[in-house]
Specification:
Keywords: Oxidoreductase. InterPro entries: NAD(P)_OxRdtase_dom_sf, NADP_OxRdtase_dom. One of its GO terms (molecular function) is oxidoreductase activity. This is NADP-dependent oxidoreductase domain-containing protein. This protein has a single domain, classed as NADP-dependent oxidoreductase domain (TIM Barrel, Alpha-Beta Barrel), CATH 3.20.20. The protein has a 5-stranded parallel β-sheet with strand order 1-4-5-6-9, covered by helices on one side. Strands 2-3 form a two-stranded antiparallel sheet. It is globular. Strand 5, helix 3 and strand 6 form a beta-alpha-beta unit. It has 5 helices and 9 strands; from the N terminus they run βββαβαβαβαβββα. Helices cover 39% and strands 14% of the residues.
Length: 179
């Protein structure tokens, strides 16, 4: 008999809060009710973002924090705030965005930390260094069912930029191993 791996569903929390395209679960009470339903369905990972919901940044994170999602057993992924100006993935911007996300989510650590959008004006080494510093400080981690894997992720990146970022990360790892 063939066995199939169990599928892990992740709930996209971008619809929590009232924004330009969303109008669902606009209060902490409604968000708590949603979390109860998700728990019944055994969906315990939430994919949030500082930019969510669209048009109302950080409302999703605030409502998840107010409804005590982490205290109810949910793990929460989040994404660095998308900024309209260059430098959105500078070390300072990553520091600021992650600090605010953790505060609003009412957690000390998120599960996966994403670079939501590329920033061609910030050297990839600077972004990689900032993510690495926060990982080493224990501010984000991801645990896979079979292995323990800790990483940060990206979203909406073109292939050449992702390749550049991976090369920068590899160089950082190599330099750390030499010391």
């Amino acid at each position: 008999m063939t066995t199939h791996p169990q599928v892990q569903l992740i709930f996209g929390a971008g619809g929590i809060g009232e924004g330009t395209i969303t109008h669902a679960w606009t209060t902490s009470e409604q968000t708590s009710e949603l979390l109860d339903v998700l728990k019944e369905l055994q969906i315990t990972e939430l994919d949030s973002a500082a930019s969510s919901p669209p048009g109302s940044p950080r409302v999703s994170e605030r409502l998840l924090g107010e409804s005590r999602a982490a205290g109810k057993g949910f793990v929460i992924d989040t994404k660095i705030e998308r900024t309209a100006i260059s430098g959105g993935l500078s070390g300072v911007a990553i520091d600021s965005s992650l600090k605010k996300s953790l505060e609003l989510l009412d957690v000390k650590q998120c599960n996966i930390l994403y670079a939501h959008f590329p920033d061609p004006n910030t050297p990839v080494e600077e972004s990689a260094r900032a993510f690495d510093n926060h990982y080493r400080a224990g501010l984000f981690k991801e645990v896979h069912p079979q292995l323990t894997i800790t990483f940060w992720a990206s979203n909406n990146f073109v292939a050449w930029l992702m390749q550049s970022l991976l090369r920068a990360s590899e160089r950082m790892v190599a330099s750390l191993q030499e010391t």
